[in-house]
User: Which sequence fits this backbone?
C-alpha cells in the first residue's frame, strides 16, 4: 500500500477516535444523567484552591472542595446532603462567575421523547457562605437540531433562604422532556456577589429521566441541622474567612 494512502487511513482512524471521545454520553432511563454530580470523582481541594473536576468542562475557577476544608468552608455538620460524601462544588478563589458544563445525548430514546413519554426530575443541593449573597444555579437546556427548545433550572438559594448560615439546601423541579430534544446541556453556574472568594456551592446534582408522561413527586429530604448555640455559635464566628469579608 502506498505510504500516502496509509497515512490517510491512519489519520482518519485518529480523527474518528478523537470524535468518539468528544461525543456526549448517552442517557439511561432511571439513572442519573449528570456525570460526577456529587463531586466525588477526583480529589477535592483542602483550602479552596482550583483542582481538576472530572466529567465537567470548567469555566472560570470552577473547583471541588472538601467538606471542612480550612478557611470556613461548609463542614459535615452544616446544612446539606445527608449522604454528602467528601466534596462539593465551589466557584473558586476569584472571579465573579464560574461554570461547570456537560452534555448528555438522548437520541437513543428520541421516539419516546417525541411521543411525550419521557419525564425528568432535576435536583440538587445549592448554597453559599454565611450572610454573603454568593449563590449557585443548575440549568438543563433541552437542545434540538435547530438549537434550544426548552430549559429547566433550580436555584439560586439565597442568603435569606439559608437564614444567614453556611450550608446547602435541597431544590428540585420536574417536567416532560420536550419533543425534538436530541441532547441536554447541563450548566452549573456559581456567582460571587460579596467578598473575594466565589462561595456559590453545589452538591449531589441529579437529572433522572423515566418512562411515562407524568413526573414523579420527589420529597425534599431533611438536611443536616446546624445548631447555633453556645460554643456552636463561637465556632461559626471563628470559621469566617477574612479573605471573604
Assistant:
Amino acid at each position: 500500500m502506498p505510504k500516502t494512502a496509509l497515512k490517510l487511513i491512519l489519520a482518519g482512524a485518529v480523527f474518528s477516535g478523537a470524535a468518539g471521545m468528544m461525543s456526549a454520553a448517552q442517557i439511561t432511563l432511571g439513572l442519573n444523567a449528570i456525570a460526577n454530580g456529587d463531586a466525588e470523582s477526583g480529589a477535592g481541594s483542602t483550602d479552596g484552591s482550583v483542582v481538576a473536576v472530572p466529567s465537567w468542562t470548567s469555566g472560570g475557577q470552577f473547583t471541588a472542595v472538601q467538606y471542612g476544608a480550612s478557611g470556613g468552608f461548609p463542614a459535615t455538620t452544616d446544612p446539606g446532603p445527608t449522604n454528602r460524601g467528601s466534596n462539593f462544588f465551589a466557584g473558586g478563589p476569584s472571579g465573579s462567575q464560574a461554570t461547570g458544563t456537560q452534555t448528555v445525548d438522548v437520541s437513543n430514546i428520541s421516539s419516546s421523547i417525541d411521543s411525550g413519554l419521557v419525564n425528568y426530575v432535576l435536583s440538587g443541593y445549592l448554597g453559599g457562605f454565611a450572610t454573603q449573597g454568593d449563590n449557585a444555579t443548575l440549568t438543563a437546556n433541552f437542545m434540538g437540531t435547530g438549537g434550544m427548545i426548552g430549559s429547566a433550572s433550580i436555584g439560586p438559594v439565597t442568603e435569606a433562604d439559608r437564614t444567614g448560615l453556611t450550608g446547602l439546601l435541597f431544590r428540585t423541579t420536574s417536567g416532560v422532556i420536550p419533543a425534538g430534544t436530541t441532547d441536554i446541556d447541563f450548566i452549573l453556574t456559581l456567582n460571587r456577589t460579596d467578598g473575594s472568594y466565589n462561595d456559590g456551592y453545589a452538591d449531589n446534582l441529579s437529572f433522572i429521566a423515566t418512562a411515562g408522561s407524568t413526573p414523579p413527586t420527589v420529597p425534599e429530604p431533611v438536611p443536616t441541622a446546624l445548631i447555633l448555640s453556645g460554643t456552636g455559635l463561637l465556632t461559626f464566628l471563628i470559621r469566617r474567612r477574612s479573605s471573604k469579608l
In short: The domain at 25-244 is CATH 2.60.120.260 (Jelly Rolls). The chain has three helices and eleven strands.
